């Protein structure tokens, strides 16, 4: 019987199997490294894109904040301008009032009555003057009450004085001013900005 030594064949088979297993392990390791590299590249790319988007958004946010600041400045300027225009408009509306009131005052003043002072504070008026007699003062008050511009006329004081050798009556009246179409006095805002 012939004896064949199979040990070198088994050892060769073992070496071949070991070499194949090492090759498979190395190939698997290379494949895993390639897959990890690919995902790493994608993640780094995504991070770069997100960072760029964040930087772009922050730039837009700064632009928007600047624009909001400008808009608020424009709103303040608009408000100041509207206040100025309101004052101008109220002055335009009220400019006819004094002329109308003085015309009416002139038409109700009798011949023998002289006005010395006329003071207006808001809607309240104070009139001082002199007249020949108490009847002329009474007629003046009655005519003022009939007028559409004056209301609540009251005699405050009357006293006799001597002027130029004549005895005259000095008087003081108060009342309310009622001018149609005129707006109440407007307090002007501080426009010195």
In summary, what is this structure?
By secondary structure, the protein is an alpha+beta fold. It has helices spanning 7-94, 96-108, 134-146, and strands at residues 113-121, 124-131, 150-163, 166-177.
Keywords, please?
single chain, 193 residues, alpha+beta, 4 strands
Q: What's the overall geometry?
A: rod-shaped
- Provide the low-confidence segments as ranges: 182-193
Helix tally equals 3
Average predicted local confidence, pLDDT: 84
Cα-atom Rg, whole angstroms? 52 Å
Please state how the strands of the largest beta sheet are arranged side by side. Answer: 1-2-4-3
Strand tally: 4
| Alpha-carbon distance between the two ends | 125 Å
The main β sheet shows up as: 4 strands, antiparallel
Helix proportion: 55-70%
Order of helices and strands: HHEEHEE
Q: Which class of secondary structure composition applies to the elements?
A: alpha+beta
Strand content: 15-25%
Textual characterization of the structure:
By secondary structure, the chain is an alpha+beta fold. It contains three helices and four strands. Helix content is 59%, strand content 22%. Strands 1-2-4-3 form a four-stranded antiparallel β-sheet, with helices on one face. A hairpin with a 2-residue loop joins strand 1 (113-121) and strand 2 (124-131). The longest helix is centred in the N-terminal third of the chain and has 88 residues, at 7-94.
Indicate the topology:
Elements: H1 7-94, H2 96-108, E1 113-121, E2 124-131, H3 134-146, E3 150-163, E4 166-177
Antiparallel strand pairs: 1-2, 2-4, 3-4
């Amino acid at each position: 019987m012939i004896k064949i030594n199979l040990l070198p064949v088994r050892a060769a088979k073992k070496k071949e199997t070991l070499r194949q297993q090492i090759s498979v392990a190395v190939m698997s390791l290379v494949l895993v490294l390639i897959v990890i590299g690919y995902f790493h590249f994608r993640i780094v790319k995504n991070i770069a894109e997100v960072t760029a988007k964040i930087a772009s958004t922050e730039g837009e946010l700064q632009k928007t904040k600047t624009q909001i600041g400008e808009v608020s400045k424009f709103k303040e300027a608009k408000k100041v301008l509207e206040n100025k225009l309101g004052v101008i408009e109220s002055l335009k509306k009220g400019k006819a009032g004094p002329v109308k009131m003085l015309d009416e005052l002139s038409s109700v003043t009798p011949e023998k009555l002289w006005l010395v002072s006329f003071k207006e504070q808001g809607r309240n008026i104070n009139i001082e003057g002199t007249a020949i007699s108490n009847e002329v003062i009474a007629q003046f008050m009655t005519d003022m009450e009939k007028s559409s511009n004056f209301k609540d006329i009251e005699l405050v004081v009357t006293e006799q004085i001597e002027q130029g050798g004549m005895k005259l009556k000095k008087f003081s009246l108060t009342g309310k001013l009622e001018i149609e179409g005129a707006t109440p006095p407007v307090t002007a805002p501080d426009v010195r900005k």
